[in-house]
Amino acid sequence: MTRSGTPVSVINDIGVLRDVLVQGPMCSPEAGMGWGGERGVDPASRQHQRMVRELEAAGVSVRRMDVLLRSALGFADARDWILERRMTGADHELGNAGCDIISWLSEQPAETLTRCLMEGMKTGDLPSGFERVGPSFDENSHWLLPPLDGVMHLRERFRVIDGGVVLAQPKGRSARANTITLATVLNFAPLFDQSRFEFWLSADGADRSCPPVSGNDIAMPGDRIWVGAITANTSVQALSLLAASLFRQDCSGAVFWLDLTGTDCACLDDCFLPLSRDCMLVDENLLGRANSFLVRSANPGAPLGIEPCRLPFLDALAQGLGVKELDLIDVRHQQPPVSQGLRRLAPIVLSPGRIIAFEEHQDAFRVLEQHGIEIVAAISGGALSPEGKGPRGLVSPLHAT
To answer: Which domain of life is it from (predicted)?
Structure first.
């Protein structure tokens, strides 16, 4: 059968980037953009707009989460699906009015409902007739629908791996709201009609029982080669379920696990980041302190075979990638300010060896160029990343080849 619909597939982290999902700091779905009009004049919006322009200039199709959500909310079943899940947990406060409020919200224009779901809605914003049904409605500070938290940083919450989608399941009600909203986009937005992909770790991407996993703890340095990190945000159980899903159809690949729980490394991206087919930005000091494991499966559906790596992780990875030796940009071999620039670089990889970075990390550019890495664009990012990290986390690839 001929495949139709928008391709949703990422075979590795250093392929040619074709399609991405982003969200600007402002919700402006009617403008078809992640910013718009007078609302888009703040520094973060301007910097995000510049990033999108550079992606599009590089031939990447850029999809905006608020625009896709608005398109999904044109359908009654999508409205019911998201409202039932987003309002869960508020029922004890709403009492018998809960169903009436959900019905009222479902009747709002898609544009209005999109803003409510993304920017939040307080009980004081309800029309007259609702305010006397419960004491909480007299408090304008009470959120009926809390705003989405950290909405720009999509990569940690949403990853496409091969032909499957992984939605992060972090703790907290606000984090769960992000996951439900992303799942609504993927399930109901017309862009994905007839796109063929599956949800991994849960049935629809909004299952409460899923173990925690972060997109920043998953790397794909080569075809059928995956690296997962055990951290405070990603559990062994989640990586096991993910490995089983990857091996379900094809057991020719290999999964590496790195246990970073005994290090001061917050996520895999902070110590291991592929830039090209054989060039990796690493912190060997941190990697050397992490226990590494090789995960295999002999047959689809068979139990996973997990064993400690017989070689140091980077040597085992080179062997798995079929290269004699990796070209390593090791942070520990650089002096400040170059080392700080490399640690916070976190670029967007457009294709092997070609990146978009923040100009705040220009101290590291010379070293990158010495290793054959081309900085396609250097953009200002101070307002987009308070922690100083690069733009990688602001973009979640939908399709890369």
So the answer is: Bacteria
